[in-house]
Amino acid sequence: MRFTSEQRLDDGVLAREFTLGEIPGTLWTPESAAPVPLVLMAHNNGLPRRDPRLVARARHTAAHGHAVATIDAAGCGDRPRSAADEEIRAELRRAMRAGEPVDAIFESLIGPLVERAVPEWRTTLDALLALPGIGSPVGYSGWTALGIRLAVSEPRIAAAGLFAGGYVPRAQRAEARQVTVPLLVLVQWDDEGNPRQRALDLFDAFGSEHKTLHANLGGHTGTPWFEVEDGGRFFDRHLRRPAHEATGT
Amino acid sequence: MRFTSEQRLDDGVLAREFTLGEIPGTLWTPESAAPVPLVLMAHNNGLPRRDPRLVARARHTAAHGHAVATIDAAGCGDRPRSAADEEIRAELRRAMRAGEPVDAIFESLIGPLVERAVPEWRTTLDALLALPGIGSPVGYSGWTALGIRLAVSEPRIAAAGLFAGGYVPRAQRAEARQVTVPLLVLVQWDDEGNPRQRALDLFDAFGSEHKTLHANLGGHTGTPWFEVEDGGRFFDRHLRRPAHEATGT
């Protein structure tokens, strides 16, 4: 892991760009003498790690007291896209404009994207946990399909905050029952592209003993800011357990 | 309003019993030099104000920094029950034991209970707001049917936290669309006596521009403790607005 730039932000958070082989990423860490828990943060459907909404969530979560890392996995964000992916994305745009069903197209785009992303996130996790000041257990926040795959395959993930506003491939819907870590699932009640019932069914399917759904009025990008704060406290409860009194979770 | 006893609790909260005419109540106030917002707290279906779960919620909410008041309204808690109410309650117990439908029985019990409770809560609110150290705007927490009726009829209610685990009479279901204050609605995902879809439909029906649903796994009495803390912050956002930065709500 090689740091290529660093910037101290006005809330005391240190933002560092890194590369790990071909993988570009960003790590935000709070000012803290003691090691802080790590939260991996990914945007639904592989949107760029530099997206202002993701950056704002990451900064706030770091200022709250967690280390936060994100990467552009293969085919995501700034990374080169295969000709096949470009073709599927063009077909997706066309179908959306035409108001045609898009599930099958999403399946062929997002399914492989998740499969390719998982090993890169795990490699990144290995490298991050070797850094001084980064503790475990590890939380995950954001892209639901990737979160399901990681929660099932990566035992270091101890809690996950999932945004139920993105296409979840069949494989991940099928393995939702195998997810057992505590979950905080965010739903936008009127998310244009993501049927409400599908989000509620997914929440119902998760095998976790401790799972909470937060639904807010409004469309896909309307999640209120206080949900980032609630997410910080969710990770406090599950990633800092020994230092906190029992909360009933 | 006559205070009949007072006790300083170990978290600094002052708990005072009061009577207001025939109405018995309890007021919990935090140690605070400045006036604090008031939260009216009622148990679903008129359960007693001395119920340990309600008392625990009230104490915690007061320690968080709000004044909290509850009463036993007519026919609720310690108050005498009419022969007619006793008959309906006996019929309800019989029907529940027999596994028969109970909606019609609940309607005939809860509908009038809400109608009789509302003027007593409003009288109590008048008396509480005349006390030193109790500020407005006012929040409401708990019994959903009463909360709907108060939110629609009492303009001093500025925000409401509703527990969607109780029978909501037809009249209150019908006026849910008229509720416009910010809402935090709690649902227990596997509440034995309260169908999930009915709770989701009620959440959907509310007219409020800002409404949030929190659903947790488990049965009727399984609401996790952290929801009391989330409730405290919800009231902070809506009852202390001038002192807080905008949060997106």
Name some characteristics of this structure.
homodimer, 249 residues, alpha/beta, Rossmann fold, nine-stranded mixed β-sheet, 7 helices, globular, disordered C terminus
Describe the structure.
Chain A contains seven helices and nine strands; from the N terminus they run ββββαβααβαβαβαβα. The first copy, chain A, is α/β, with parallel strands linked by helices. Chain A has one domain: Rossmann fold. A nine-stranded mixed sheet of chain A has the order 1-2-3-5-4-6-7-8-9, with helices on both faces. In chain A, a hairpin with a 5-residue loop joins β1 and β2. In chain A, α2 packs across α3. The longest helix of chain A has 27 residues. Chain A is globular. Chain A starts with a strand and ends in a 10-residue tail after the last helix. The C terminus of chain A is likely disordered. The interface between A and B is medium-sized, with 24 and 24 residues.
Concise summary:
2 copies of one chain form a homodimer. With 249 residues, chain A is of the alpha/beta class. Chain A is built from 7 helices and 9 strands, in the order ββββαβααβαβαβαβα.
Major sheet characteristics of chain A: 9 strands, mixed
CATH topology term of chain A: Rossmann fold
How many helix segments of chain A?
7
Rg of chain A from C-alpha positions? 17 Å
The fraction of residues in strands of chain A falls at: 15-25%
Give the largest interface.
Answer: A-B, 24 and 24 residues
pLDDT < 50 runs, ≥5 residues of chain A: 243-249
Task: Give the overall shape of chain A, derived from the CA principal axes.
Answer: globular
State the separation between the terminal residues of chain A, measured CA to CA: 36 Å
